[in-house]
Amino acid sequence: MRIIMRPNDVLFLNAGREFSAGETHLGITQTFVPPHTVAGAIRSALYFKDSNGLDHLIRAGEEEPGFEILGVFFWKGIELFPLPADVVEDEDGRLVLASPEGDVVTASGSIHFSPATGFIRLDTLLDYLQGKEVDFERVVISKEDVYTLEDRIGIGLTEKKTTAEGLLYRTRNLRLRESVGVSVWLGERGDQVRDALGATGLLRLGGEGRFVRYSFDDDQVPELPEMDVRGSLVRLYVATPLVLITRRDGREYSTWNLRYELSKALGVKAEKLRIRWFFSNGILPLTGWDMKNKHPKAVRYAVSPGSVYYVEIEGGLSSLPGYLKLGELKNLGYGLVLPGLIES
């Protein structure tokens, strides 16, 4: 089951940094929709519907809700995914797949290449994951065709809702293009969420409580098919931020942590898994508001969507599942990883 959300205005999505008028006077949005922000919007709406009868879905005071979000994506008639990080620009500016070999990564035979950005449709992503040849030059959707950033000026208010002197601030907000929305994939208890909220309505999403119009799509979440494996090397595409924490301050993530998670998901001993190459889109700070204790949550760090791991599995596998949920905050929509083949 999916929810399709269409913002009525710009969105301000917390970027994991402290922001207050007159001090840190520029607030900058994230350029993706954090799954926990969507989960918070749904939980708040459920609370105002019936805070007692829906407690099994809301789970007030707990970090994760009683329903499952599989992932949150931009949507333009079909889900859009960040361009895989192993798709790069070669010396001639063409979009090509990187070619790792030994300790060297090349593009079109050259070690000189640049990162590429943009989005691809779900059907293109599935071709890529199945090891099919993809003409990325033709299918990539630019970020400018999905969203733009828009600055707004604001004035801080006192507790009495009067203008506070010296608290002028500016926010950089996310504005989706007219034909673009947000797709939310619901898993367990998604039908109960629909029954409680109603098939259509309004939700407040992100900072300043901007409204989005939502409608439930009763169709199942798009099928992510299992694949037969040939060879010991597989690709893992990070579809939603992947939270792998090894230190209390959350500033480090490790390949061992990923290997441990994979070993549980695939039924393979961690010692038989080896991360050969990692194509990164960077590390994201994740934060939020603790409704119970009334203060910001500690910042976590996540591997960005679009990042790609190449994993070698000793002895190989007969097949790959359609998707994996790895790391922390899985019910909130984090850690959706799509396995794929290196070549068909």
Number of helices: 6
Structural class label: alpha+beta
Number of strands: 27
Kindly state the percentage of residues in helix.
10-25%
- Whole-number total of structural domains: 3
Strand content: 35-45%
Strand order of the largest sheet: 10-4-3-13-1-15-14
Give the end-to-end Cα distance, rounded to a whole number of Å: 30 Å
Describe the structure.
With 344 residues, this protein is an alpha+beta fold. The chain has six helices and 27 strands. The chain has three domains: 147 residues, no CATH class; 49 residues, no CATH class; 115 residues, Immunoglobulin-like. The strands form eight sheets. The protein has a seven-stranded antiparallel sheet. A five-stranded antiparallel sheet has the order 19-24-17-27-26, with helices on both faces. It has a three-stranded mixed sheet with strand order 2-12-11, with no helix packed on it. The mean pLDDT is 86.
